[in-house]
């Protein structure tokens, strides 16, 4: 991995993106399964499954990017206690 000019900022941005995906997945699941949702139960379940697969892939990609950045720049990033979100 090429050295980054601001590795801590890149790592923090990746961490935020990861947490936002988790938050949006929870929100989307709630929207798709709440009372008053139009459509059949099967269609709703299929949409929820598709959203889950997409978010899961995104989370995996972000996790790999975080690991690569941290591996190359652990000294500059520091421990998780130093990371501010």
Categorize the overall geometry: elongated
The sequence of SSEs as H and E is HH
Q: What's the pLDDT, averaged over the residues?
A: 74
Poorly predicted regions: 35-40
Percent of residues in helices: over 70%
Oligomer: single chain
End-to-end distance: 24 Å
Helix tally equals 2
| Strand element count | 0
Helix and strand content put the structural class at: mainly alpha
Task: Give keywords.
85 residues; mainly alpha; 2 helices; 0% strand
Mind explaining what this structure looks like?
With 85 residues, the chain is an all-alpha fold. The protein has a domain of 36 residues. Helices cover 75% and strands 0% of the residues. Helix 1 runs antiparallel to helix 2. The two termini are 24 Å apart. The relative contact order is 0.22. About 7% of the residues have low confidence.
Short synopsis of the structure:
With 85 residues, the chain is mainly α. It has helices spanning 7-33, 41-77.
What layout of secondary structure does this protein have?
Layout: H1 7-33, H2 41-77
Helix pairs in contact: 1-2
């Amino acid at each position: 991995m090429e050295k980054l000019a601001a590795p801590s900022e890149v790592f923090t941005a990746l961490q935020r993106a990861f947490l936002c995906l988790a938050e949006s997945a929870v929100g989307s699941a709630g929207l798709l399964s709440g009372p008053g949702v139009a459509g059949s139960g099967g269609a709703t379940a299929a949409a929820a499954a598709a959203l889950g697969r997409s978010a899961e892939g995104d989370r995996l990609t972000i996790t790999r990017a975080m690991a690569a950045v941290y591996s190359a720049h652990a000294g500059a990033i520091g421990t998780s206690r130093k990371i501010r979100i």
